[in-house]
Amino acid sequence: MTKPAIVAKTVSTKRGQGRPVPGENDVGRERLLTATEKLLRILPPARVTIARIAQEANADPALIRYYFGNRTALLVAVVDRVTAHASRGEPSKAEPTAALADHIARTVQLVRRAPFMHRLVIDELADAGTVESRARVGAMNRDLVEFYRDILGADGGKELAPTDPLFLHLAVLGASDFFSSASPLVRELVPEGTDMEELTAAFQTFLVKLVLDGLRKRGA
Questions:
Q1: Assigned fold of 18-80
Q2: Less CB within 10 Å around the terminal CB: N or C of the chain?
């Protein structure tokens, strides 16, 4: 290859810092999200660094800044993606208790699949995060409180007793989160060799029954 050809090649691949070249380390936004989500399933949030995410995605760390701006924005995007099940529509006016039972069951499964997610939300995004991340966390939780308010409103007092939707949100989330985050303790309390997926399904059924039986009006 002649010297002019080398110069021409150098000029043609010159790019702004962090900007992916098509076909050359073009991992894309989704791949970074997938890698981050995978790490958050097995590691505490503090250990999910930009360097570790880039290594997991086999990407240049600069791509994180290119696609998301910073680590906090990436983490917020992952939380949005993982908690997409909580994006609510209007609950069925015919079956509000069924909608509530389904939501509780999915919350247990969500927290089981992403055991460090709520630590991430509290420690890094709500407590020590940016103004934007704190606002996003607040909006996410207010949306869930409104979901419970809508469920109770759709029931109209037919089956469910008057209940504070904030306390209902905290109770469901708290029970689901503790069952997952305290898994080392739970394992000590059950027979050796217990299938944790089966135990999770049993806890899910228990929590749904506990909440619905507790909310139902006497005689309903």
A1: Arc Repressor Mutant, subunit A (1.10.10)
A2: N
